[in-house]
TrEMBL record:
It comes from Paenibacillus thailandensis. It catalyses: ATP + protein L-histidine = ADP + protein N-phospho-L-histidine. This is histidine kinase. Keywords: Kinase, Phosphoprotein, Transferase, Two-component regulatory system. It is an enzyme of class 2 (transferase). Pfam families: HisKA (PF00512). InterPro entries: BphY/WalK/GraS-like, HisK_dim/P_dom, HisK_dim/P_sf. One of its GO terms (molecular function) is kinase activity.
């Protein structure tokens, strides 16, 4: 069980770093690239906001995991469409 917990923490750590790194990259581009057009800046801001929201979601998931380990969470199971989840994940890599 402890080994599984460590594996989950490593996975969560990776899931947090990925959107954070992307978010910081877009912010750096906005801050330093003086030749970006207004349209490009708006596009980068939208992407940065999306990455920030993704980071927030991952942090919320981590918080829920911590609550579940403290037996402070009622788990409600429901079906998910894996095709939609995979498509969303793949689209996130393109920008």
């Amino acid at each position: 069980m402890e080994e599984e917990r460590k594996r989950i923490i490593v996975g969560i750590s990776h899931d947090l770093r990925t959107p954070l790194t992307s978010l910081l990259g877009y912010i750096e581009a906005l801050r330093c690239d003086k030749i970006l057009t207004a349209e490009e800046k708006n596009k980068f801001l939208r992407i940065a906001a999306d990455k920030g929201n993704a980071l927030h979601e991952r942090l919320q998931e981590f918080f829920e995991l911590a609550k579940s380990e403290a037996d402070d969470l009622h788990v409600e199971l429901h079906r998910v469409n894996l095709t939609d989840i995979v498509q969303e994940a793949l689209v996130g890599f393109y920008p």
